[in-house]
Amino acid sequence: MKQFLLGKTLAELKDVCAECGMPRFAAQQMADWLYKKKVRDIGGMSNISKDNRAKLSEKFEVGHIAPVEVLSSTDGTKKYAFPTGDEGQLIESVMIPDRDRATLCVSSQAGCKMGCVFCMTGRQGFHGHLTSRENIAQFMNIDESDLLTNAVFMGMGEPLDNWTEVKKAIEVLTSDWGFGWSPKRITLSTIGDLATLKDFLDSTSCHLAISIHNPFAAERAALMPVENRYHIEDVLALVRQYDFSGQRRITFEYTMFAGVNDTKRHADALARLLRGLPCRVNLIRFHQIPDSPLRTSAPVVIENFQKRLESCGITTTLRASRGEDILAACGMLAGKNTDRH
């Protein structure tokens, strides 16, 4: 089996050069072909000698991955399903257009270990970490690849549970030898994995989103078992050590569940929990998933919740629902396809 070049960092490409007896400067050439010129075949790397391309081709291939299904929404949102190394397992990417922006919602795992009760991906169980190649392939194999302006690691899986590979993907995206994106174009969403959160905060300047969904520990644990391991108060104690008053932003994701987390009591407790932290709360209407008793809060309840937070000095936005007609909730399309196998 040949190895893949796509997703490798510059340091890893230098290792490839050493393995194939090629000059080290060829690593920069390969990076340019992979991430700027988006070559599909090693034979197309024309400024690398024919002999070295032959050596490279003996052990490696580029490794692009084509989507196996594409769904288009009436609002312009598009969902792509990609195959993984596990037969029958799919992961999803969602391209979300918004005026002059095109944001890609990226998956980092096939399935998820975290078991959040409101998440379709979590219901599928965990099937494996995506490699940096599988992360980067999501950016490069959609119709809108050249139009993307932003990315959110907010799709299937917990990015910080697969931090080694996600970190490499972010390096590819933000390095001059890679995509050359500003880190401010990237947001990573986590449920609060303290084991790797500090390294993310120290080693990147990407934006951070934390899924909170309930300010009370016991109630949050009923929705998100991670609370039993990584308490939200400990997560907040860590992020308060970092500066979010400038260009780097921190957002708290709060999905609204009718009668579960949408009362004045919850709004006031959330405001107390976040007091003094320069942040915003992003309220999210719950996308209904099969066989779940959870329902989204009524519009007037969400509006009152937002007003209550803002009266406490918390900047609050309401995320627009996108792509509901194409199974846009995380894991819906992959779950549908998995059921076929």
Layout of strands and helices, then pairs:
Layout (H helix, E strand, L loop, with lengths): L2 E2 L5 H11 L5 H11 L13 H10 E2 L7 E4 L5 E6 L6 E9 L2 E5 L3 E3 L8 H4 L2 E4 L2 H9 L9 E4 L9 H12 L11 E5 L3 H10 L3 E5 L5 H7 L8 H8 L10 E7 L7 H11 L5 E6 L13 H13 L3 E5 L12 H7 L3
Parallel strand pairs: 1-2, 6-9, 9-10, 10-11, 11-12, 12-13, 13-14
Antiparallel strand pairs: 3-4, 4-5, 5-6, 7-8
List keywords for this structure.
341 residues, 33% helix, DNA polymerase, domain 1, two-stranded parallel sheet, disordered C terminus, TIM Barrel, ten-stranded mixed sheet, alpha/beta, 14 strands, single chain, elongated, 2 domains
Short description:
With 341 residues, the chain is of the alpha/beta class. It has twelve helices and 14 strands.
**Mean pLDDT figure:** 93
How many domain units? Answer: 2
Helix content: 25-40%
* Largest sheet descriptor: 10 strands, mixed
Provide the structure class: alpha/beta
Q: CATH topology of the largest domain, which one?
A: TIM Barrel
Distance between the termini: 25 Å
Number of helices: 12
- Rough outline: elongated
pLDDT < 50 runs, ≥5 residues? 337-341
Strand-residue proportion: 15-25%
What integer value in Å does the Rg equal? 21 Å
CATH H-level homologous superfamily name of the largest domain: Aldolase class I
User: Can you tell me the CATH class of the largest domain?
Assistant: Alpha Beta
**CATH architecture assignment name of the largest domain:** Alpha-Beta Barrel
By DSSP, the count of extended strands is 14
The main sheet orders its strands as: 3-4-5-6-9-10-11-12-13-14
